[in-house]
Amino acid sequence: MTTVIRGAALLGAKPTDVLIDDGVIVSMGRGLTGDRDIDAAGLVLLPGFVDLHTHLREPGREDAETIATGSAAAALGGFTAVHAMANTTPVADSAEIVEQVARRGAQVGLVDVRPVGAVSKGLDGETLAEIGNMARSAAAVRVFSDDGRCVHDSRLMRRALEYVKPFGGVIAQHAQDPRLADHAACAHEGELSGRLGLAGWPAVAEESIIARDVMLAEHTGSRLHVCHVSTAGSVEVIRWAKARGIAVTAEVTPHHLLLTCDVLSGYDPVYKVNPPLRPAADVEALRAGLADGTIDAVATDHAPHAAHDKDHAFGDAAFGMVGLETALGVVAETMVGTGLLDWAGVADRMSTRPAAIGRVAGQGAALEVGAPANLTLVDPAAAWTVVPAGLASKGRNTPFAGRSLPATVVATLLRGHVTVLDGALAEAAVPV
User: Fold this and answer.
1) Are 407 and 332 contacting, i.e. CB atoms less than 8 angstroms apart?
2) 329-381 pLDDT tens trace
3) pLDDT at residue 429 tops 70
4) CA-to-CA distance for 71 and 300, rounded, in angstroms?
5) Residue spans of alpha helices (H) in 109-202
6) Which of 1, 198, 265, 420 is the most buried (most CB within 10 A)?
């Protein structure tokens, strides 16, 4: 069946029709015809979003999320590919586990699920995981991370960077010096954390690891990716490294673009996240860094939790927030609504660059004839209110409950297959 997306504004520019056949864009212009029409008048057509940082919890914590429910949340958020982080149970530190994740993602079929391999065995930070086997496996892993835990040993980090270099892999680092921000740290270190009696996490715990790692990346000539940048100082270190020609990329989460640590005053554990929310000056620096390209990508760090893990006193609650279904709205509010990015810029930061960093073939392509039809249709004029119970994710731990967000995902297509239509999962795409 051929599909025509009719009257869409490509990257927010001039409206046109897009004809899709056999999963590929085959024609663009006006007056095109096909077997099925999608009316896109007033809508913006973007390449499907690619998330570099998603926690799908499967295997091991299917009470919090599954590959099926997480994929549904991703598709509804406009994503056509996600990178599933390695901190599962068991840890994704072998070819067998990453292949299991990739197979299940393909069975669900809502998004391309790209497994992230662990850097160290069991995430213990002591011995390299089976990086080569995972890279050569059917899952063809290209991103490796101990996310949730920093690779704090300099020698191990160097060896990991050297190991991934021959096949173009990348080490995605969770930058947190455990001697400066230990397991008890749960809030930005400052006047507020002191007044609330919460263990502080200083900005330098993140910045010092990034500074070390960019120097190791320069020394090895390998690729480094910095996960969830949260401080102004981190942005400056990355900006300096890029000016020096070091192969470093970075991501920022939607929640770090919008929320400040002031929301912690009520001790609501929904706001407990790793790294912690920071002051307004850091938020402004993150927005500026994303706008000027110092920060390459928006990544959700989608971290669903079962209620029994999140509903505790602040210090005891699990870290993390869900974010796949709200990512576009937050970016639209903080970056498009403020004039810092246009829709072409959103496509670059949420699709093109993330796909390049993750080496995801067929994703993030330009909207042109011959390109795979991995697409997202957005209504820039619409708004919606976040209702946790209405999310497709099993996780209800959204910090945006009750908040109105701009822009809605109207449709998502994965290689021409409609996974979302009119803001809901297409009937034929409902996962099992």
Assistant:
1) yes
2) 999 999 999 999 999 999 999 999 999 999 999 999 999 999 999 999 999 99
3) no
4) 13
5) 131-136, 154-164, 191-196
6) 420
Distance CA 181, CA 206 (A): 9
d(CA 100, CA 407): 35
pLDDT in tens, 335-347: 999 999 999 999 9
| Contact assessment for residue 142 and residue 116, using Cβ atoms and an 8 Å cutoff | no
Report the pLDDT value the prediction gives residue 427, as an integer from 0 to 100: 72
pTM given for the model: 0.97
Instruction: Say which residues have a Cβ less than 8 Å from residue 178's Cβ, sequence separation at least 6.
Output: 150, 152
Q: How many CB atoms lie within 10 A of CB 404?
A: 11
How many alpha carbons lie under 13 Å from residue 380 in its C-beta half-sphere?
20
Q: Which residue has the tokens 């096949």?
A: 167
Residues 238-263 pLDDT 10s:
999 999 999 999 999 999 999 999 99
Q: Which residues are catalytic?
A: 301
**Domains in the chain, CATH or no CATH each:** 3-44+371-429 (2.30.40.10), 45-358 (3.20.20.140)
